[in-house]
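Following up on my earlier thread - several people asked me to post the actual chain instead of describing it. Fair enough. Here it is, all 290 residues.
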Amino acid sequence: MRFDLVDLRLFLLVAERGSITRGAELAGLALASASARIKGMEERLGAPLLERRRRGVVPTAAGQALLHHARAVQNQIEAMAGDLAAYATGLRARVRLLANTAATSELLRGILPAFLVAHPRIDIDLDERPSHEIAQAVASGAADLGIAATWAGLAHLEQKPFFIDRLTVIAARNRPGLEGRTISLTEILGESFVGLSTGHALQEHIARQAARLGGHLHVRIRVPGLDNVCRLVAQGAGIAIVPESAARRSARSLRTLRLTDDWATRQLNLCARRFDDLTPQAKLLVAALV
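Reply from S.P.:
Thanks for posting it. Predicted structure:
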């Protein structure tokens, strides 16, 4: 059987995103071309690689085996590019970084922009995921580095402290009620919320905590991005739960209360399978992050 590097990269993207359409977009291929490539891979192998479901695709047992080897090949290519980049002035290297919502917000404030300016030949694939998915992706080799909450099960990975993420309740400055400086989720379950988009990692985390208390959040509107959430809250559309760093950026127009629940304070760590095995470029990014 013959699978070229384009086939392997396409299959990786489709399997990781659970969608042939999304995988084709990220691989820079037309949907028809991507579908034909996957069909050709299955015909050469003599077994299906993907199981089609209502909400996308998942790898079959054969697909899981291919996924393991495709990641190994991709990692080796990335390592080769990273090692050679030190000698070839025109060669670029790419680092794959996954981060949860709070970490992404913190990274984009200055760390990653400064790094990209300082290292013009290093590209970064930054993707926002829930902490438990980040741990799985780093362990499997789907990402070079991850920044995730320690509760997500990082014990099998090497870790370095990144920062402490605290969730806070925000409300418009002129909104009555919600007195004091601290509050618990139980006390605000009856309020109207401004939420992040459906499926967003942070929003799902908060919804799970509400469900554990036997309640649910009344979300009046869902919007993409923490800045949009803060803007709507400042205009009186409802209250919200956001990372402290996001609340600080809009401090002039918001009132904040520290959320007292244990789950609202999280240690975020930078993780890798082995820091010593990273490419030189990934090691440079580690140095910038810690």
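Residues 145 and 282 are 8 Å apart (CA to CA). That should answer part of your original question.
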